[in-house]
């Protein structure tokens, strides 16, 4: 049974009680994913909790759309991602400094993974440097591990446009990682 | 530690299922047929089963940490407090009016807001399900619902609103201006909408009008095709219209088959009034 069906069939009458019931169900079914996305991007538990609350309020206000979604998980992940990217867009330089400090003081540069996907904290250095649309595509690809076809369907992009955005992100990420990890080398994927 | 990072090959074939599809599988969101396929794979492929088990364990750990860091009662209280702070009636509550009087004042305020709400009053041409495109104009008071044929000047900021058609698969919003320039403002999938529950929604981006004067018409087109195919079709039709020299204040449809649902609205861009001495 999908979450949307479940929600519509169990929502009790009475606005206040109904809102509380709905929030409780959303919290149980999607809370950890939304929080996890907010925490990944905002790097601060208080800010992530604030952002998560905003995401749930948006869902409450767009309940009809939520119920019509074939994949509530995808929909909520997207709302959370865009909400956080909008916060980052407002103060890009400050966010970049924050990510940079975290990389410098953390262990991320001491235990590098062999692929970009396995170095997600380092990828954040590029998130605050690119346009939100590019960052959004990169998050779905590198963090959520969606296929390009899944991203195209979700965002409504053509495959060439998506690849262009991902390449732009990879180029910026390369430069940022080079600065953070002197001596690092990159190699193209083997054919 | 690795000192070399391998970059992804974006042109390589991608083998499914993706990590995200597995999360949807665990969340019980996949269609029955796909779910059955993955369940068969789980029963026969040990490596796949290990991958799913690892992801399930990761999700359980994530949920446990989440429940500790954001306990449900606290979450509910904080969301309610946040909503209450923003309620348009919060100022009424702060007056602490006696019961009946307070309720009457709140009801009156609600009626005024309801009457003024522009929710479903899109200015576009009507289709079977009503008008499907409109716009809001940013002004000193915030924003107002734009009217068909409204006169606007360079630098005015508008934001589009559309009402999706649940029978269709994709939407394209395109503009044709008096100089024959075609601009695609949005192209997206609208799959999964529920018939009868389509609501007017604002598109995220706003547009600042340029200095070209004359009529400009915005067409929203819904089609059963995928986004890319529909976009190509709509762009081509818009180019044909643009090159035909038609009067955009009167041409309400793009030259497209009747199987598409389309609605349009136009504005008239005028030169800004000369500033005084």
Protein described:
The complex is a heterodimer of chains A (191) and B (277). Chain A has helices at residues 3-10, 15-42, 45-61, 63-68, 72-90, 92-105, 120-127, 132-143, 148-155, 159-180, and one strand spanning 185-187. Chain A has 191 residues and is mainly α. Chain A folds into two domains: 1-90, RNA polymerase sigma factor, region 2, helix turn helix motif (Rna Polymerase Sigma Factor, Chain: A, Orthogonal Bundle), CATH 1.10.1740.10; 92-182, Winged helix-like DNA-binding domain superfamily/Winged helix DNA-binding domain (Arc Repressor Mutant, subunit A). In chain A, helix 3 packs across helix 5 and helix 8 (132-143) crosses helix 10 (159-180). The longest helix of chain A has 28 residues, at 15-42. Chain A is globular and about 60 Å long. The N and C termini of chain A lie far apart (42 Å). Chain B is an alpha+beta fold and 277 residues long. Chain B folds into three domains: 19-69, no CATH class; 72-116, no CATH class; 126-270, Immunoglobulins (Immunoglobulin-like, Sandwich), CATH 2.60.40. Chain B has seven helices and twelve strands. A five-stranded mixed beta sheet of chain B has the order 6-12-11-8-9, with helices on one face. Residues 88-97 and 105-120 of chain B have low confidence and may be disordered. At the A-B interface, helix 2, helix 3, helix 4, helix 5 and helix 9 of A face strand 1, helix 1, helix 3, helix 4 and strand 9 of B. Strand 1 of chain A pairs parallel with strand 1 (4-6) of chain B.
Reconstruct the topology from this structure.
The complex is a heterodimer of chains A (191) and B (277).
Chain A (H helix, E strand, L loop, with lengths): L2 H8 L4 H28 L2 H17 L1 H6 L3 H19 L1 H14 L14 H8 L4 H12 L4 H8 L3 H22 L4 E3 L4
Helix pairs in contact in A: 2-3, 2-5, 3-5, 5-8, 6-7, 7-10, 8-10
Chain B lengths: L3 E3 L12 H8 L5 H13 L1 H24 L2 H15 L3 H6 L3 H18 L9 E2 L2 E2 L1 E7 L2 E4 L4 E4 L3 E7 L6 E7 L5 E8 L10 E9 L5 E10 L3 H18 L16 E10 L7
Parallel strand pairs in B: 6-12
Antiparallel strand pairs in B: 2-3, 4-5, 4-7, 7-10, 8-9, 8-11, 11-12
């Amino acid at each position: 049974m999908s979450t949307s069906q479940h929600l519509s069939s169990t929502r009790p009458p009475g606005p206040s009680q109904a809102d509380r019931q709905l929030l409780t169900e959303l919290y149980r079914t999607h809370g950890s994913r939304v929080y996890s996305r907010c925490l990944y991007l905002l790097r601060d538990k208080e800010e992530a909790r604030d952002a998560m609350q905003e995401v749930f309020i948006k869902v409450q206000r767009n309940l009809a759309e939520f119920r019509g979604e074939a994949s509530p998980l995808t929909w909520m992940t997207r709302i959370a991602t865009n909400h956080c990217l909008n916060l980052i867009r407002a103060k890009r330089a400050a966010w970049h400094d924050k990510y940079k400090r975290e990389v410098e003081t953390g262990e991320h540069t001491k235990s590098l993974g062999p692929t970009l996907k396995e170095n997600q904290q380092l990828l954040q250095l590029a998130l605050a440097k690119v346009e939100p649309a590019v960052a959004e595509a990169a998050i779905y690809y590198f963090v959520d591990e969606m296929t390009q076809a899944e991203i195209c369907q979700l965002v409504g992009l053509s495959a060439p446009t998506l690849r262009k955005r991902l390449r732009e992100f990879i180029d910026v990420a390369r430069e940022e990682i080079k600065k953070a990890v002197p001596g690092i080398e990159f190699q193209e994927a083997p054919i | 530690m690795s000192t070399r990072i391998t970059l992804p090959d974006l042109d390589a074939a991608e083998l499914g299922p993706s990590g995200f599809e597995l999360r949807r599988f665990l969340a019980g969101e996949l269609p029955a047929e796909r779910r059955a396929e993955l369940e068969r794979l789980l029963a026969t492929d040990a490596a796949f089963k290990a991958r799913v088990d690892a992801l399930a364990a990761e999700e359980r750990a994530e949920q446990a940490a989440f429940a500790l860091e954001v306990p449900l009662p606290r979450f509910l209280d904080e969301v309610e407090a946040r909503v209450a702070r923003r309620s348009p009636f919060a100022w009424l509550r702060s007056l602490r009016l006696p019961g009946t009087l307070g309720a009457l004042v709140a009801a009156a305020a609600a009626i005024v807001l309801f009457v003024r709400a522009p929710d479903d009053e899109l200015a576009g041409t009507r289709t079977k399900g009503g008008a499907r495109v409109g716009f809001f104009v940013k002004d000193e008071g915030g924003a107002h619902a734009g009217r068909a044929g409204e006169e606007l000047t360079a630098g005015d900021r508008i934001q589009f609103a559309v009402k999706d058609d649940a029978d269709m698969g994709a939407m394209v919003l395109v503009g044709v201006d008096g100089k024959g320039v075609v601009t695609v403002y949005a192209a997206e999938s609208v799959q999964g909408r529920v018939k009868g529950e389509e609501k007017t929604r604002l598109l995220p981006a706003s547009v600042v009008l340029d200095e070209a004067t004359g009529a400009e018409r915005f067409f929203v087109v819904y089609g059963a095709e995928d986004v890319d195919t529909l976009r190509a079709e709509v762009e081509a039709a818009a180019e044909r219209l643009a090159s035909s020299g038609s009067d955009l204040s009167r041409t309400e449809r793009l030259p497209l088959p009747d199987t598409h649902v389309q609605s349009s609205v136009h504005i008239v861009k005028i030169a800004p009034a000369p500033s005084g001495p």
